Amino acid sequence: MSSQTTQFTRQPTDTGSAPEALQQRSRAQRSRNRVRTTALFVIFFAVFIVVWHLATVGFDDGGLAPTPGATWDRLLEMLSDAFLLDGPNNVGIFYHLLASIQRVLLGFGLAALIAVPLGLLLGTSRVINDGLDPFIQVLRPVSPLAWLPLGLALLRDSQMTAIFVIFMAAIWPILISTIDGVRRVNPLFLDLARSLETDTKTRVLKVLLPATLPAIVIGLRTALSTAWLVIVAAEMIVGGRGMGHFVWNEWNALNTPSIVVAIVIIGGVGFLLDRSIAQLQRLVPKS
Amino acid sequence: MSQTITAPHAAEPTAPEPVVKIEGITKGFPDRKKGFQPIVGLTDVDIQEGEFITIIGPSGCGKSTILKMIAGLESADEGSIRLAGKPIDAPSRELGIVFQQHVLLPWMSARQNVLFALETDPHNTRSKSQLESLADEYLELVNLSHAADRRPAQLSGGMQQRVGIARAFALEPKVMLLDEPLGALDALTRHELQLQLLELCEQQKRTFIMVTHDVDEALLLSDRILVMGTGPRAQIVHDIAVPFSRPRDVENLEQDPKCHELRGFLLNSLTGH
């Protein structure tokens, strides 16, 4: 600011130490809260294990109910055999996980490559959008699994079919979020771009895309978590390697503790995938 | 003689050709409930090179719409607007716009925002480093050198608007269009920026067209004030020459009885008495 506003000067105060004390107090408050949260988590976890144990022990079902003890043993076993590769029927959990992640990332990546440019186009052009919107509205609510038999019939390849199903699961959230994002771009940004006589390429890449990026990242995040939900079900059907196939296989072997371990792993990996894309969200400046 | 192309004012060589010539424009908007709503009635204005013109009027009279039409962002329903003889049918870099709210791209720093306006020039022949120093020059002009690397979100409202002003000046446009440039600012910042704008426009000889609803702002800055009536079909009801010599000084202006008289007249015509 220029010198004209400096006529109001603040009186010096001798409370220079006050902010320091306040900071200390808030820091102490934060660490107290963290201790409480951790303690609560430990208590809940213990209660959960006890209830689980009581609910499964002595349950007369021929040993189908997974007890905490059996599950723990199975977990250790699976972790020690994680990298096992001994014939098609004896594959470590790591390779199942890897196969699932690969399919998800491939299908998701393809969906993003198509949905982002398409969304930018549909968001800008009212005419094209109005023509395509009925297709989007009807196809979007269809469970991606409904596409699976069609994929098998046309692609004749289980791996490709799984990726295709993930693609169908991931494309809608990205497409819809991108279209919505384009519509919400400050119209004055576009006026500015026009008044600078920018060409279409500059307008799309330097103004529209960066301004839509926050919405695109939200779409990507939704799409990735949807894809991770769908992959387990898809793999139960297409077989091969993968977490879904593993779960179904263990059910066929009546090995329920493995299923519990697999559920925890699927949840943990899903959480990590979501976290990593949330990091992307932080990098994008809000408009 | 039957000519298809005639230079405007060819018959009267004594009158200088206006930079902006507005002839008989009208504008309305379709309204779903009420049908077609006429906003701007027949309007004619000639704006001479180097003039600072202010369009003032009650809210809703379409003064911002007129500015948008001059900017080429909206088209008039009837009539024509010419910039140096050529009709304005699309936005152009010869018209530098300062918007009411700051329109800075939030993912760019202040310097990058000014630089973006320079780099997008299709006829640019300068090197990147030349453009950079030019951007810095214009930020210096609005006393923002110290904040050049900050993002818009890290700037105060007044600073954001100054970046917008620097960007418009950086285009070196024929005409500067100011759409209530200080309207969204608090009173103190507003006053400070009015003085800065006064200094800038006296220093950088350009043609300015400003829209405002602030009578004092109009009197301080303009050579001519166009008062618009109330809508619908609002028209220019007064065209007032502001008689104060330049460079102007707020204090002298405040003591000038002519200024009081004009101020009273403007306020009266705005409130419709």
TrEMBL record, chain A:
Gene3D superfamilies: MetI-like. It is a multi-pass membrane protein. One of its GO terms (biological process) is alkanesulfonate transmembrane transport. Its main location: membrane. Residues 1-29 are annotated as: Disordered. Residues 97-278 form the ABC transmembrane type-1 domain. The chain crosses the membrane at residues 35-55, 104-123, 135-155, 161-183, 204-234, 254-273. GO terms for cellular component: plasma membrane. The keyword Nuclease does not apply. The keyword Membrane applies. Keywords: Cell membrane, Membrane, Transmembrane, Transmembrane helix, Transport. It is found in: Cell membrane. Residues 1-16 have a biased composition (Polar residues). Belongs to the binding-protein-dependent transport system permease family. This is ABC transporter permease.
Automatic annotation (TrEMBL), chain B:
SUPFAM superfamilies: P-loop containing nucleoside triphosphate hydrolases. It is found in: Cell membrane. It comes from the Bacteria. It is a peripheral membrane protein. Residues 20-255 form the ABC transporter domain. CDD domains: ABC_NrtD_SsuB_transporters. PROSITE patterns: ABC_TRANSPORTER_1, ABC_TRANSPORTER_2. The keyword Transport applies. Keywords: ATP-binding, Cell membrane, Membrane, Nucleotide-binding, Transport. GO terms for cellular component: plasma membrane. GO terms for molecular function: ATP binding; ATP hydrolysis activity. This is ABC transporter ATP-binding protein.
